[in-house]
């Protein structure tokens, strides 16, 4: 009998509690700083150029071989020509960020990456720069 | 018309095992609450509309998934989830006959990258599926 | 002062045990076996196929050895690899015998080997290929299902009315064979590929690998790095046990417990994400330390969270224990007594539920668990109830360990500046073990020439499956799903 009353009060108390559910598409759970989403190429904010010089360290460090970097030689220095990333086989381990000496690559907060075909999961340099435009938390953007 | 009606109350069959499955089950919990969209999990292929194809597979597991897919009643959709699955599907070699046949039989509608994708990403893929004409 | 002396003596005794066994092995077998390697609690040697059965016979029956439990047989057809591990509770030691053929490329007749070992150990038949049972036990077939602990195997049953006569757990869909030799691999790359060997607690394979390489190179770690490792281990242990409770409550039909547990698990996962950057795949261990430091405010918030977690998990336990229907489904169902539990060679919480105290965190001194006060909870008879409640008790102990770790977290560096590419790895076998949430996880690492590394995981899952099959043969059909999922079987040894 006592237990029934106890349970009643627990249930009654639950009426006034804040709901635990996050109404996902309208409101979003805050993704913590440092959590690993889609990679993006950083821009130098003064010159608005890509910091990456195409050394290819991330290509060697990637455990699933999803990065391929193409570099060109011009006027005594290497520069980045093409940066191809296959998001489908990327495991978001963060090894490419750890190994980069110039701090040119970064993992963003973006996790909504569903696509209708495999081809659109293969992203290129321009897509990755477009990611970099959102300097603050970009998880609000599709 | 009928497709859009079905899409408002999807029944999901989850095949396979692995780390993605944890996140799928987490999406059924009170924090994400996938049943807000009329989505429920079923354990019979006959009553399922969506096959979620995720996790680790060997040859026998792939045959089993094809079997499950054949038992489902059309209209039916397939979601491929996680890195391991997409790596299998995007592999273009002549070595694995079974995988080649598998890709020919199964028509995947939505691909979800991530290792494993967050529960929100799984819900988002279902929303994309509902949007799909 | 006295107590310190006793402690030192105790550690000496364990050390001398290993040396004794080493000497005895050399004395009895001499030239029959190869060099003997000693990895603390694990002893490894190679033996020829011709002498294998005589060696096993004397290991089991001679009083100097008395290794009376078969803990695993690992066979890889592709690379012709065969490792037999024997275990003894009295000495708390494991002997690992790597079997070599006289002609190296000749394949083993595995069926013959298992049937010959069956003379000494009954469990041996469970390791062989048993597909013929499918034709015998075909009264009822249950295919793998959505709840997490029922998804890696099919169940073949032969029924007598409502009683199960015999059961066969067929794990053919989870025998995931891939090439296991990592060729001239960078070590950081390898660590990020290891963590899906145990997908519920991904930190343990990484930790196991790092401990193995560190013991080989004799690297001494900074204290803070070890404390962070322990903190993460316990967080993952809590998450893994909570996911066990989730699937258990799904099977038992307890929706309230299902919802409450997932809310608590979400809190733990968010802390893990805050520290490592991912909810499931940590990729956090490095050789000589950890990847990055934990900030003070994260530790503070975790410390504040622990009483709330304790309260929440206590509430879930009350839901299970105050419900008469749940108790009816749990108590005296699927009893595995200590004798059969010992014989099948299981480890971890399922063994402790049967009343045998064996925990690697206490017996072996890996990491710094000896600095921390905690108890190893025990069950009484090993039924469903014990197997469930022992998980709750372990969660409380883990929470206690976590709060103790945060209070005594030392300052300092979190890793040594080691470039993994410049490590001098010479060809040698390594065996390293950790106590993971569902038993003892063992990695066999063989470093070959040109920095090729071969890794073979030997997980606790197979032993749990053996015990599960044994206990099922006394149950009624209604209890089947609860018993099977109470063993918490996940395929940990996919590679």
Explain how this protein is built.
The complex is a heterotrimer of chains A (142), B (133) and C (495). Chain A has one domain: Alpha-Beta Plaits, CATH 3.30.70. Chain A is 23% helix and 21% strand. Chain A contains 4 helices and 7 strands. Chain A starts with a helix and ends in a 9-residue tail after the last helix. Chain A is of the alpha+beta class and 142 residues long. Chain B has a single domain, classed as 3-Layer(aba) Sandwich (Rossmann fold), CATH 3.40.50.12280. Chain B contains 6 helices and 5 strands, in the order H-E-H-E-E-H-E-H-H-E-H. In chain B, helix 2 crosses helix 6 (119-131) and helix 3 runs parallel beside helix 5 (97-105). The N and C termini of chain B lie close together (11 Å). The model of chain B has no long low-confidence stretch (mean pLDDT 85). In chain C, 44% of the residues lie in helices and 17% in strands. With 495 residues, chain C is α+β, with helices and mostly antiparallel strands. The longest helix of chain C has 30 residues, at 223-252. Chain C has a 5-stranded mixed beta sheet with strand order 1-2-5-4-3, covered by helices on one side. The B-C interface holds B 13-14, 16-19, 21-23, 25-26, 28-31, 41, 43, 56-58, 60-61, 64, 84, 115-116, 118 and C 143-146, 148, 151-152, 172-177, 196, 199-200, 202, 243, 246-247, 258-259, 262-263, 265-266, 269, 279-281, 490-491, 494.
Give a brief rundown of this model.
The complex is a heterotrimer of chains A (142), B (133) and C (495). Chain A is of the alpha+beta class.
Q: Termini separation of chain A (Å)?
A: 53 Å
How do the SSEs of chain A run, as a string of H and E? Answer: HEEEHEEHEEH
First-to-last CA distance of chain B:
11 Å
The CATH architecture of chain A is: 2-Layer Sandwich
What's the CATH topology name of chain A? Alpha-Beta Plaits
List keywords for this structure.
heterotrimer; A: 142 residues; alpha+beta; 3-stranded antiparallel beta sheet; B: 133 residues; alpha/beta; Rossmann fold; 5-stranded parallel beta sheet; 6 helices; globular
């Amino acid at each position: 009998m006592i237990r029934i009353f106890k349970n009643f009060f627990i249930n009654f108390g639950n009426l006034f509690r804040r709901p635990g559910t996050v109404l996902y598409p309208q409101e979003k759970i805050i993704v913590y700083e440092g959590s690993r989403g889609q990679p993006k190429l950083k821009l130098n904010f003064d010159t608005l150029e890509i910091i990456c010089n195409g050394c290819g360290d991330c290509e060697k460090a990637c455990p699933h071989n999803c990065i391929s970097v193409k570099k060109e030689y011009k006027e005594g220095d290497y520069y980045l020509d093409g940066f191809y990333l296959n998001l489908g086989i990327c495991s978001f381990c963060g090894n490419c960020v750890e190994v980069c000496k110039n701090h040119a690559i970064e993992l963003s907060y973006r996790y909504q990456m569903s696509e209708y075909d495999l081809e659109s999961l293969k992203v290129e340099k321009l897509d990755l720069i477009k990611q970099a435009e959102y300097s603050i938390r970009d998880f609000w953007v599709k | 018309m009928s497709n859009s009606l079905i899409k408002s109350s999807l029944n999901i069959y989850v095949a396979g095992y692995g780390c993605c499955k944890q996140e799928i089950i987490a999406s059924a919990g009170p924090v994400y609450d996938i049943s807000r969209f009329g989505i429920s999990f079923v354990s019979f292929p006959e009553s399922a509309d969506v096959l979620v194809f995720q996790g680790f597979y060997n040859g026998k597991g792939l045959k089993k998934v094809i079997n499950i897919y054949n038992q489902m009643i059309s209209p039916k959709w397939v979601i491929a989830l996680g890195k391991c699955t997409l790596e299998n599907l995007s592999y273009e070699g002549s070595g694995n006959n079974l995988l080649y046949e598998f890709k020919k039989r199964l028509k995947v509608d939505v691909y979800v990258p991530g290792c494993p994708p967050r529960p929100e990403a799984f819900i988002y893929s279902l929303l994309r599926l509902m949007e799909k004409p | 002062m006295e107590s310190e002396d006793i402690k030192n003596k105790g550690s000496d005794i364990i050390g001398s045990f290993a040396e004794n066994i080493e000497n005895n092995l050399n004395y009895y077998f001499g030239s029959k076996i190869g060099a003997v390697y000693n990895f603390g609690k694990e002893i490894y040697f190679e033996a020829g196929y011709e002498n294998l059965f005589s060696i096993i016979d004397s290991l089991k029956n001679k009083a100097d050895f008395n290794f009376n439990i078969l803990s695993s047989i690992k066979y890889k057809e592709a690379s012709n690899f065969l490792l037999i591990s024997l275990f003894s509770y009295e000495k708390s030691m494991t002997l690992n015998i790597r079997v070599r053929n006289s002609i190296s490329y000749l394949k083993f007749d595995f069926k013959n080997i298992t049937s010959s070992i069956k003379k000494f150990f009954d469990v041996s038949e469970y390791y062989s290929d048993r597909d013929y049972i499918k034709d015998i036990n075909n009264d009822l077939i249950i295919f793998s299902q959505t709840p997490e602990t029922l998804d890696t195997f099919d169940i073949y049953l032969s029924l007598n009315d409502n009683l199960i006569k015999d059961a066969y757990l067929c794990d053919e869909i989870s025998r995931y064979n891939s090439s296991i030799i990592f060729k001239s691999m960078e070590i950081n790359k390898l660590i990020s590929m290891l963590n899906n060997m145990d997908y519920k607690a991904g930190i343990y394979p990484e930790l196991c690998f790092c401990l193995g390489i560190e013991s080989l190179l004799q690297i001494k770690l900074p204290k803070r790095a070890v404390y962070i490792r322990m903190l993460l281990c316990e967080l993952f242990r809590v998450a893994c046990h909570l996911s066990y409770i989730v699937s258990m409550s799904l099977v038992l039909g307890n929706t309230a417990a299902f919802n409450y547990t997932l809310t608590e698990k979400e809190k733990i996962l968010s802390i893990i994400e805050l520290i490592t950057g991912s909810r499931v795949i940590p990729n956090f261990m490095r050789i000589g330390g950890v990847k990055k430091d934990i900030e003070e405010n994260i530790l503070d918030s975790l410390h504040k969270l622990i009483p709330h977690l304790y309260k929440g998990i206590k509430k879930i336990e009350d839901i299970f224990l105050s419900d008469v229907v749940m108790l009816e489904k749990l108590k005296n169902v699927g009893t595995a007594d200590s004798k059969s539990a010992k014989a099948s060679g299981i480890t971890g919480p399922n063994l402790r539920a049967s009343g045998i105290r064996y925990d690697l965190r206490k017996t072996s001194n890996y990491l710094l668990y000896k600095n921390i006060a905690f108890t190893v909870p025990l069950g009484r008879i090993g039924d469903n109830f014990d197997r469930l409640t022992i998980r709750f008790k372990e969660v409380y102990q883990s929470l206690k360990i976590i709060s103790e770790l945060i209070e005594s977290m030392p300052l300092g560096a979190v890793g040594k500046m080691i470039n993994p590419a410049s490590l001098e790895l010479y060809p040698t076998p390594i065996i390293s073990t950790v106590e993971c949430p569902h038993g003892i996880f063992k990695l066999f690492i063989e470093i070959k020439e040109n920095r090729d590394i071969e890794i073979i995981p030997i997980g606790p899952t197979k032993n749990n499956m053996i015990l599960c099959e044994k206990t099922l043969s006394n149950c009624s059909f209604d209890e089947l799903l609860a018993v099977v999922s109470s063993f918490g079987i996940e395929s940990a040894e996919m590679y």
